[in-house]
Amino acid sequence: MKKTSLLLTGTFFLLINLLYAQEGPPTFGSTFAEYGWVKMQQEGYDYETITRYARNFYSDTLTQNDSTKKFKHYLRWLSYWMNRVYSTDAELENGKKGLFYHNAVALNNSIGQNPCPGSNHPDSDWESWGFDTQPLLNGQISGWGGMGIMWTVKVDTADHNLQTLYAGSPLGGVWKTTDQGLNWTNVTDVMGVPGLSISHIAISPHDNQHILVGTGQYWGTAPGIGIIESKDGGNTWTTTGFTNTQANSKNQNVMEVHFHPKDTSKYFALMDNKILLSLDRGATWDSVLFNAPNSLNMETMKFHPTNLDTIYVSSRGSDARLYRTFNGGSNWTDITNNFNTGAIADHFITIDVSPTDPDALWVGMIKKENQSSDRYRVYKSFDLGNTSVQRYAVSSPSLDIQSPNKTFLRFLLQILTLFSQEA
Prior knowledge:
four-stranded antiparallel beta sheet; 22 strands; globular
């Protein structure tokens, strides 16, 4: 009898453990990888339940390393919300523990208590500039909300008080502030495309009310609608001659858009392995200014500060390359080997220039993931990229942010160009 009782008890607990291991909304199943954690949040599941289900789903490294399972996207969601849930004992007594903050006051309080969650920088003086409210769609959390990513930020330098900024989210449209970040307004939802994927914002150097926006992500998970523009500071928007639908494949997505610094009729667009040129203010984009190998994706383009026929373009891919033209794009030269002289190829190259040191070119390079020695390097060229000097080399940047690779180098180069003559 005792053996039967023990057997039944053991079987009961085994079943309980199996049920717990499979816990989660049955309607999601294996589709949890398709942003199931956001769907659970929309349906009212609390933070503890969602993260418990996610831990089970991502319990092995094979699943984590499978790009189709979107583990990195889940970590972004987790990082965004971990300090935005009710979690104190008092809140537990009120039945709120694990629920999400959805109002500005609660979010502000949470952000104020956690100005910089990085363990290595507890005294950081960085502060959040918003957004304070979680975007809602039809009264619910946006299906793409909570990812915690801002892909592009542009300051309107024609506003001499620097009060006006535009920010673009890969899953949330363009936002604008006119009071240095105290209040933000989404200015692209009027187009009727909620959660519009924004890749890049450009403000015309000739008219600060004229804005170009590239849409879509180069990795293809959030297709865009081509290149859009506003001529009244974001109040209204129109499409340019480069348009596509949300259903188009990733090769229709735009990485960057640029106005020509002097010629008001010329616009540039970086997409996949091409640079497109419009000669008629965006009406047509028939001219292919540059074609790189199919294995590459364009990363960024920079004009020489004083000689506008000199342009640099960097890329990402299995063997990332760096190119330069001296004649406005008619001819291009591969200058990668003037920086990376080693046998190991890079998979990411980013660049920047400085108006105070015009012939200088700053280049950041990242080796492939299985190469740890000096994986991140920064070079400076004093002569338009003909020769270079290595300034920094580290195996891993000491930053408490998710996937610091590209963010680290872009940010570092922007800081270095401010002090280019001294560095």
